[in-house]
Structure formats: structure tokens, C-alpha cells
Amino acid sequence: MEFQDYLSIVRKRWVSILLVAAVVLAAAVAVTLVSTPMYRAHAQVYVSVRSAGTTTDLLQGSNFTQRQVSSYAELATTPRVLVPVIEHLELATTPDTLARSVSASSPVESSLLDIRVTDPDPTVASAVANSVAESLATQVSELERPEGGVSPVQISTVRVAAPPTSPASPDATRNLALGLLVGLALGFGVAVLRELLDTRVRTEEDVHAVTEASVIATISVDDDAVEHPLIVQSNPHGQRAESFRRLRTNLQFLDVSGGPQTFVVTSAVPGEGKSTTSINLAITLADAGSRVALVDADLRRPSVARYMGLEGSAGLTTVLIGRASLEDVVQPWGEGTLHVIPSGQVPPNPSELLGSPAMARLLTDLAAAYDVVLIDTPPLLPVTDAAILARLTSGALVVVGADRLHRQQLQESLGALGTVGARILGIVLNRLERRQGDAYSYYDYTSTTAEPSRQSRSGPAGKASRPPVAHARAARRRPERPRRTQTTPAGSAQDRDEGVDVERTVTAGRWPGPPRE
């Protein structure tokens, strides 16, 4: 990882970093408050050698004491020195326990010896330090004294330990500073670890880490999309609507080798927004003047008819099993350049129907009659329907829901298309989190005075302000066919739950058929 990657982690996860730092800091405060104050007393002794006073004797004595002073420091914590201290002060402890609170050290190349004692009682700490200094002097004199002579080594107290006025520990300032530093370091480490272990697809960089397929559009997240899925109709000047128009533009420049403009729209797992992407893309293509056919080939959980307010009881499955013709089930939407083929009744064998010769013939007829054919299909990982249809069309547009899909799942879904030889036309990164500083965050596309778009004025089928040219030509070529009205039961629980009009009208005979001049 580069330095800018770490900065990106800090910007993205600064809340969790500060949260971890706050927890560690709170722990440091708690430890400081519950810790018993410990006082440290300091006594200092000087080690010297009795000599005749000549320069040579003084030099030899100085070298001797510097070599021996480290040994005397070790001697200060032995029972030989501490037992007399315990007896003198009448302490209720043992030499080993007392040794853990006594320390002795000497500066480098020095004859001074520092004795420090730590105890909860400052008076006891000072008394023990002074007593250890006296006991050490006595024991060294006995150990260094030759037989029948006087010890050449003399230890003199040069600093008497006084009762300390402030505790040596806990040090509140040090603990808080250390807790803050450790907390920030730990929080940053946790953030980096989460970033390394987090395999969710959130950005274009995450997509490029899995596949070389191009991201042909990014669509920002919108909390209102669930209630208003047809964003191009409900908010034609919004940022999401502009993203779908950008997707339309990029789709028109995709190289399909001069073949039919027939595209499968799918995703890896449910809930990534493939159906709303298909619908809004179809509306924007129709707005541009293209004749568009939108086919709901999700024969397991169809949703196109429900989102668009159309009748869905008859549709693709009805045609595939031979109970109706394409002219009977196709439904115009808007001003007539967009035609929708609902899924129809959910069959027991969706994969077999979509892979049948009847489906191949239907795709051929649609490709001849329309400029663009969009096919909404089930997700790739649960079922194979999308892979089957992608092999029969120009290719697949894979919708990736940001923060809903893992990299491994994306890789497996693209691999399913590659296994059957289907072409991946591009990736649509949907529900992308908006960031401060995005190009379109500085502009407001919403206008209360702007003229509504063509689709928002026209609405569902049969409500266009003027008939399309294709319909007028078709009317001149053949006699007008009767209108067929289908009404769903008023008590349908699904219709009431979804807020769809209970009574709908389906107009038969509106499929323009293959183009004629």
C-alpha cells in the first residue's frame, strides 16, 4: 500500500479510529483512577577507599570503588542487607517481598550509589531507604574487612531520603498521553486490518481489482429509489437520471460488431438494482428516439410490470408456451417508442424456457423490430438463466451494487458468463456513495420550473399526447384490432402492498412488428 492509500483509510474510517482511541483513553483514565498511589523515596551513598593519601593510592582506590560499586548495588537487595532493615523497622514482610520494592543503581564510572524504595506510605518509603543505606554500609564493612584489620571500603550517606510529597505512580499525564497515542495507533491498525480484510465492492478501483471489464456508468445511491424506482420519470433533472443518460450514451458506443442491439441486464446477487437499472435505461433510450423493447425475463421474481404499473399476468411465458402471440402481450409505455413485455406467470421450469428455441426465435423477432432490446434477467450466482440468455444476445451489462457485493462474488458471477462464452459489455456500479467534492455535487439538476420530460408527461401505455409514427404506419397497414381490457381482482394483497393501481388496461395489437418503409 502507498502513502495515499493510508490517507484514504484515515479519511474513510476516521470515526472508528477515534472510537478506538477514545476507548483506550478511557481505559487509561480508569486504570489511573483505580491504581493505588505509590511513593518513591531516594537515598544516595558514596563509596570510598581509605588510603595513605598519595596520588597513586587515590587513583587505585578510585578504580577499585568504581569496579566494586555495581556489586554493592546487587548486595543492597539481598537478605543480608534487608533482614536487619526489617528487624530495625519492625516491618511485617519478608526479605523477598521487600526486595521487590527496593532498587539500587550506580551512574556509569561513578562511586555514587542510588537507593530507591517504593511504598504506598511515603514515611515508610523514606525510612526503608535510609535504613537500607545504613545496613549496606555495615555489611560492606564486614565483608571487605581483613582479619584483625579495618575495612578499606567506606560507605557514607550523602543524601538522606525525605518523605515524598507526591506519588511517583500513577502518573496521570503520562498515562493519558500514552493511552491516546496507543489508542490512535491501535485504531489505525484496526482500520488498516479492516481495509485489508474487507472485500466488499465499493468503488471503481474495487471493480478493476477483479476484472478488466470497463465501468461504463456509476449511479449514486438514493434512499428514495425504493419508493420511486422510475427516477428518470419522477425526477428527470436529478443526478441519478443524468447518470442513466450517461449510461445510455456509453451503451450506444459499445462495439457489438454490427450485430443486433440486444443486451442482457443482470447482477451477481439479488438486491443490486438490476431491474430499476433496466427500466430507467429503457426510458432514457426511448427518450432519445430509439425504439426499445424491455423484456422481463426474470421468471422467478419478476418486478418490471409492478414497477411500471402494467399488467403482468400475460407476457413472456405466455408467448414461449404458445398460448399467445407477441402482439398480444406487448404493452406500449409512454409515447410509444418503449414497449414492455412482462414476464407472465411464473413457470416451474424457467431455465428450460429461456434456453428453448422459442426464446431464440423471439429474440430474433425483437431484434428485427426494435433498435434496442433490453432483457432483465435473474442474478447470476443463484441461477443460470442470465448466462443462458447472455450467450444468445450481444452481451451482458452487469449491475454491481456498491457495498452489497464481495469481490469473490463478482469474480464468480463474471466467471459464469465467461464459462458459456457470453460477452461482458460493461459494469454498472450502482448505489455508489456520494462524496464531498464529486463533480455533480456542485450543481443542482432539479428544477421546479423546467418542462417535464416526454415520459413523465405521457406515463403508462394509452396516455400519450400524440400517437407515435410507427403506430400510425401500422394503423394504415392493417385494420384496427379491438382493445382488450384485463382487470385484476380488487382484493389482491400484492397490489395493495405495492401501491399499484388495481384496475389496469392492456391494449392489444400495439406491437409495431418488423420495420417497413
Describe this structure in words.
The chain is of the alpha/beta class and 517 residues long. It is built from 21 helices and 12 strands. Strands 5-12-11-6-10-7-9-8 form an 8-stranded mixed beta sheet, with helices on both faces. Strands 2-3-1-4 form a 4-stranded antiparallel beta sheet. Helix 18 (407-419) links the parallel strand 11 (395-401) and strand 12. Helix 2 (14-34) packs antiparallel against helix 7 (172-197), helix 4 (79-89) crosses helix 6 (122-144) and helix 10 packs across helix 11. The longest helix is centred in the middle third of the chain and has 26 residues, at 172-197. The two termini are 61 Å apart. Mean pLDDT is 81; it is low at 439-459 and 461-510.
Question: Briefly, what is this?
Answer:
The protein is α/β, with parallel strands linked by helices and 517 residues long. Helices cover 44% and strands 15% of the residues. The strands form two sheets. It has an eight-stranded mixed beta sheet with strand order 5-12-11-6-10-7-9-8, with helices on both faces.
How far apart lie the N and C ends?
61 Å
* Uncertain regions spanning at least 5 consecutive residues: 439-459, 461-510
Mean pLDDT: 81
Total helix count?
21
Number of strands: 12
| Radius of gyration, taken over Cα atoms and rounded to an integer in Å | 43 Å
Query: Strand order within the widest sheet?
Result: 5-12-11-6-10-7-9-8
Helix content: 40-55%
> What is the overall shape?
rod-shaped
Largest beta-sheet details: 8 strands, mixed
Strand content: 5-15%
Structural class by sheet pairing and helices: alpha/beta
